[in-house]
């Protein structure tokens, strides 16, 4: 099959133009907005696990991880509706709604009088992340067109997770000097104000770009024209029916299960070996920093060599890194493990989103992204329950080894089941 069968026709002179160069100002604005979305998540990465233990006295791991469970479950469900609402009402209103929901979150984290307030704040944070992050993903896919989709997702995810890393390190340093509350969470308040202003005043709607791409979308030889699917059919296709979409959904869920482990239990493991808050903050930042910065390369790379092998390699590298965390006992060993974990995640994260963008028809792509992100961010909830329960029964190290084994299994599943989806990559027709 020739690459030209996937290449969109030249846009009409009076229609929306696709491509990064044609839409660079809006694209970079959305990159900045997504960095602020990531910063909202980063304000918790170092401080909240320590807050659970030191301020609220939660000793059971399962109980301490309830905030991740609340966040992950809410974000997963919100992702699904974000895709549907983006198709129905437009991308920009959904983005603004996500930032309106985030307004009380920093204050609840900074001054909440009980652990229930922290869990409630993470419910709102899950809604914020589900609406705002999903929408920036969809809008960048709309603008980029098919030929630079991997690069677009690399920029999107890089911005978000570099901001996670920078904020995690910043809040760790602030907490080391000013205490765990309230000072670290004032960064989050600034992020909300800036992002809400940009989203309301500067971001433009991109739904017409998706419609323009759909109007000239070319179907590969031998494939059916799946333009008119119901939301239920899209959910089944993304979850089970299509080999690449469903493999991406499973790999995404395991990837974020890993992230729940890194977010909730790694700081407690590091603290149990005598590391101070500042050094825990450095470790908490290393993983998303490498993850974030690496995605600018890996997203571009997947546009040139394909998606499947990068995802397989990334999942196996993550498994190795998590095993190294379980095996290690020193700052230097854990620093290496966090770098490897970030590199493995960078190989996987934008590439999985590019797979969804490759396979899904433009007319239902936003909903497919929502279903994929439902599964992917459900991994936070699964990770909180699974890792917390194993840690309570058999200890932190056993929980970490168990997740390493599960991650390796996910990589092997991708290697066996996923077909190559890159446009021009001689992929079989989607089923």
From TrEMBL:
Keywords: Cell membrane, Membrane, Transmembrane, Transmembrane helix, Transport. Residues 18-422 form the Major facilitator superfamily (MFS) profile domain. The keyword Protein transport does not apply. SUPFAM superfamilies: MFS general substrate transporter (SSF103473). This is MFS transporter. The keyword Ribonucleoprotein does not apply. It comes from Streptomyces sodiiphilus. It is a multi-pass membrane protein. PROSITE patterns: MFS, SUGAR_TRANSPORT_1. The chain crosses the membrane at residues 20-41, 61-82, 94-111, 117-138, 158-179, 185-203, 310-329, 335-357, 378-394, 400-419. It holds the Pfam family MFS_1. InterPro entries: MFS (IPR011701), MFS_dom (IPR020846), MFS_trans_sf (IPR036259), MFS_Transporters (IPR050171), Sugar_transporter_CS (IPR005829). It is found in: Cell membrane. CDD domains: MFS_MdtG_SLC18_like. Its main location: membrane.
């Amino acid at each position: 099959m020739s690459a030209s069968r996937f290449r969109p026709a030249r846009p009409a002179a009076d229609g929306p133009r696709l491509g990064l160069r044609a839409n660079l100002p809006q694209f970079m604005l959305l990159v900045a907005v997504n960095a602020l979305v990531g910063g909202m998540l980063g304000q918790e990465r170092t401080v909240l696990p320590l807050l659970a233990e030191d301020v609220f006295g939660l000793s059971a791991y399962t109980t301490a991880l309830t905030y991740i469970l609340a966040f992950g479950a809410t974000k997963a469900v919100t992702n699904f509706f974000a895709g549907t609402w983006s198709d129905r009402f437009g991308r920009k209103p959904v983005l603004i709604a996500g930032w309106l929901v985030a307004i009380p979150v920093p204050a609840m984290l900074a001054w909440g009088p009980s652990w229930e307030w922290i869990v409630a704040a993470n419910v709102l944070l899950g809604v914020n992340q589900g609406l705002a992050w999903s929408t920036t993903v969809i809008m960048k896919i709309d603008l980029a067109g098919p030929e630079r989709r991997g690069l677009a997702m690399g920029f999107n995810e890089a911005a978000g997770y570099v901001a996670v890393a920078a904020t995690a390190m910043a809040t760790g340093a602030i907490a080391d000097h000013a205490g765990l509350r309230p000072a670290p969470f004032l960064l989050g308040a600034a992020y909300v104000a800036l992002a809400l202003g940009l989203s309301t005043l500067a971001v433009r709607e991109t739904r017409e770009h998706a419609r323009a791409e759909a109007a000239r979308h070319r179907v590969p030889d031998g494939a059916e024209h799946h333009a008119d699917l119901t939301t239920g059919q899209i959910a089944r296709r993304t979850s089970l029916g299509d080999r690449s979409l469903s493999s991406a959904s499973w790999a995404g869920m395991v990837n974020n299960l890993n992230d729940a482990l890194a977010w909730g239990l790694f700081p407690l493991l590091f603290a149990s070996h005598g590391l101070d808050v500042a050094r825990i903050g450095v470790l908490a930042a290393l993983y998303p920093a490498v993850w974030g910065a690496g995605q600018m390369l890996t997203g571009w790379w997947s546009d040139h060599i394909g998606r499947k092998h990068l995802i397989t390699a990334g999942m196996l590298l993550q498994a190795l890194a998590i095993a190294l965390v379980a095996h290690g006992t020193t700052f230097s060993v854990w620093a290496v493990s966090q770098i490897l974990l970030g590199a493995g995640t960078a190989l996987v994260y934008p590439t999985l989103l590019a797979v969804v963008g490759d396979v899904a028809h433009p007319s239902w792509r936003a909903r497919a992204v929502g279903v994929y992100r439902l599964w992917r961010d459900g991994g936070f909830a699964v990770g909180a329950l699974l890792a917390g329960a194993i840690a309570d029964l058999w200890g932190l190290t056993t929980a970490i080894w168990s997740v390493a084994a599960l991650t390796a299994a996910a990589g092997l599943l991708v290697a066996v089941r996923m077909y190559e989806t890159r446009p021009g990559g001689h992929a079989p027709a989607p089923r």
